[in-house]
Amino acid sequence: MHPFLLMQSLEHPNGREQFDKLLLGLLRRVLDTNKRVQEAACSAFATLEEVIYLIFEPFLFEIFCIIIIYFLLFSGGC
Fold it and tell me: pTM higher than 0.90, yes or no?
């Protein structure tokens, strides 16, 4: 999605709420048991991050928690 269009959608009355749901759903998919779902979620997250990294600031704690859990689960740490 083009950054301008995303910023326009966030200005919509329900835009931020919809974005929050999208981001948290995407992060949950990173921890999916299906490897292809994980790969797709990581790829989508990386693409989204490149476009709107400034909007991620309020979600940094949740993002880092998911990343830590991901590495613990898939590096044999758990």
Answer: no
